[in-house]
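TEACHING EXERCISE
Course module: macromolecular assemblies
Task: Read the component lines below, then compare them to the predicted structure of the full complex.
Student: A.B.
Group: 4
Components provided:
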Amino acid sequence: MKKLKRSSRLVDMTYFLLQHPHEVISLTHFSERYQAAKSSISEDLVIIKEMFEDEGYGALLTIPGASGGVKYMPRMNKDEAETLVHQLVLDLNKPERILPGGYLYMMDVLGNPKLLHEVGRLFAAALYDKEIDAVMTVATKGIPLAYAVGQHLGVPVSIVRRDHRITEGSMVSINYASGSSDRIQTMTLARRSLAAGSKVFIVDDFMKAGGTIRGMVDLLAEFDADLVGIGVLVEAAEVSERLVDDYVSLTKLTNVDAREKQIELLSGNILDRLH
Amino acid sequence: MKKLKRSSRLVDMTYFLLQHPHEVISLTHFSERYQAAKSSISEDLVIIKEMFEDEGYGALLTIPGASGGVKYMPRMNKDEAETLVHQLVLDLNKPERILPGGYLYMMDVLGNPKLLHEVGRLFAAALYDKEIDAVMTVATKGIPLAYAVGQHLGVPVSIVRRDHRITEGSMVSINYASGSSDRIQTMTLARRSLAAGSKVFIVDDFMKAGGTIRGMVDLLAEFDADLVGIGVLVEAAEVSERLVDDYVSLTKLTNVDAREKQIELLSGNILDRLH
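Instructor-supplied answer key:
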């Protein structure tokens, strides 16, 4: 790269930091990349830090020491989080979304990468201070969500399977009770998918009694992995017996009546969990 | 937002453009956002355009006229594309990845959001001049890929299902022959998932005889949608009869022998398809 002026450096550094969330980038890296003095790089980073923090894009942490540098940590400020949650509520709170069994049609939301990118940032913001090694979800509808969260956290995604169509080599399976239906089902994850000791955040699109998520928690134990947290896009609130207690939800389905075509969906608990 | 200096504006505009690929952003939008003259904004954009194009992040197209502005279109230059493809080849070309039936274990690659983000950009770069309304894939392993491509193209993702566990309302189903196994299978997409007339790019992780992709092409016809292109992460090359002719592949599996634990994987045809 040819030697750049500050204005050009700022553009490139912004791009670079956004591609490397939760990674420590040394000042030396930038200094060599742009053939600029470390003092100039430091000044550049002050400008970026100020903009990122003023606009709520995230924090730019300075890590001192020889193996130090800067680390971009995506966040979201309360105003923007409220706006996003309210947008989701407005979008999801529609009778035409009601499916048999009290589920909601959400494939338009889950299939919207731009919206999910912001949803992922919101979850990442709530996990701001936690050490996370992987995001876990179960196929199929949780996958876009897990991917969006994993992107902001800079960590891989483990996709738990419910079918046995194609083997992925040595598999770990557990049986779980899908709480809503009392059926015993099986979930499977390739042994090589998740390292022992991994700190894992579990996400899913919809949680009713929590049987599926409970299954994933049990599966984590089989991998000697640690549960850091649980996040769902929608929690169905009218459930007498919940198998999962501590989780973050973006929205809450408080009432759904397929016959009367009535639905009531509100904000979830996420806004209380933001820093 | 308070009135910003050029250096701060450049950071915010870079962030903003990266969140809005393939969207026309008017100069007025930026001018109002930063309380800056349009002439200043134009100068800012020249700086960003130069950096984006020099580094191969993408093009910043100027659209003239009243409803004009700028549009960020992610691209990748040939050098970076070659490096990425070679990295994928090195990564995938390992005997321990071989699965029964000549398939490859790829969940570590598919579950790596950072790597997939670059893979998505590479596909988007190959589709640079095409008008695309949606990306389609079939659950499960194609989903992270489709999401990454959709993100760079700024379009939604349609996920075709192979199971019938949960209904998504009115569904469209077609039967297809999974070429590798000669079994008749069913694939399904919710009617409301895809608008008629949509221009669709189909992606999948692995293509052998192309039966699954052929099925998705047939499904497109049921939606009166148009096929723009097909992209796969891995094509298995030793197939006598291919059901799909025109596609883009990042890598090509030229030989796989589960018993001898031998594998040969090379670059696909993507590098010839880049502009």
